[in-house]
């Protein structure tokens, strides 16, 4: 972790960010981040087979973005998936911010559907229209250590 991210992590711990990890009815996990009792973000995973999961719905409430919460959610998800023996994680990435958060958590991807991060819009349409529509993204996968 670089020093800028390390500082963000310490600040977030000082702010009292807490996490709840629950097994989801569909066999994956639901992970929620709370600040002073308010849910500020979440991420979900879906189990594809014994060793493979899909990560989706990484979301931080607009008022709380840019403080490292998305990265921390992705890191908590990575930790839980590794503990459960997951070896491969797939995601559909829709913005540079989410890609950066996921790379902080999962490391360099083993495969991507793009040549460079510049091909991903800096701001996804999720954030432009504010409706949180699910949409197509750029497929990315990671082999977990
Ligand atoms: C994507 C999302 C979860 C990121 O959450 P967040 O808490 O704002 O993310 P972080 O603060 O952890 O930042 C993640 C990265 O984006 C960068 N970033 C954050 N806000 C930024 C901004 N306004 N401008 C430029 N970069 C920014 C951060 O610097 C960080 O990169 P770094 O670690 O290399 O420095 C959030 O923007 C969101 O909910 N978007 C709408 C839903 C969505 O598109 N989900 C993704 C589906 S794949």
Automatic annotation (TrEMBL):
Domain N-acetyltransferase: 1-145
A GO molecular function held by the record: acyltransferase activity, transferring groups other than amino-acyl groups
PROSITE patterns, alphabetized: GNAT
The protein's name in its UniProt record: N-acetyltransferase domain-containing protein
């Amino acid at each position: 972790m670089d020093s800028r991210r390390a500082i963000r992590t310490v600040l977030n711990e000082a702010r009292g960010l807490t996490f709840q990890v629950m097994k989801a009815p569909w066999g994956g996990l639901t992970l929620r981040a709370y600040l002073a009792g308010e849910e500020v973000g979440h991420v979900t995973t879906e189990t594809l087979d014994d060793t493979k999961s899909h990560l989706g719905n990484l979301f931080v409430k607009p008022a709380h973005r840019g403080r490292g919460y998305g990265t921390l959610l992705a890191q908590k998800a990575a930790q839980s998936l590794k503990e459960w023996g997951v070896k491969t994680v797939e995601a559909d990435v829709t913005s540079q911010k989410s890609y950066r958060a996921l790379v902080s958590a999962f490391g360099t991807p083993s495969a991507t559907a793009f040549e460079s991060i510049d091909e991903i819009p800096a701001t996804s349409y999720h954030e432009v229209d504010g409706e949180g529509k699910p949409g197509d993204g750029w497929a990315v996968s990671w082999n977990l250590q």
